[in-house]
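pasting for ref
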Amino acid sequence: MIYGIGIDLAEIERIKMAQEKNSQFAAKILTDDELHVFQSFPEDSHRRYEFLAGRFSVKEAYSKAFGSGIGKVSLHDVEVLNDPDTGRPMITHHPYQGRAFVSISHTSTLVMTEVILETPQEVNE
């Protein structure tokens, strides 16, 4: 059963400007493993900022699905990494005890994310 659904839309350029203004912005948003991936992209790469905006947006969408908003869920409480075999994004760490599903879509200027939280299995039985 679905516990919560959250969506978010982020402007890539706005996230890029935040990172350029404050070089610690990415470290405030990303977990250590996410930051490692972010830093692997060339600094002038659009993909670098697409990644950062996507992870920021997922964390916003997660907090909406969780029902708390950012503040009750820290940005570092939620981690999104890509499956090494398929490349699809997966929420690998989060505070909710049920399963979490994520989808990330990009245009050249926007990132849209959706997070679905599923009620823990024992509650379903």
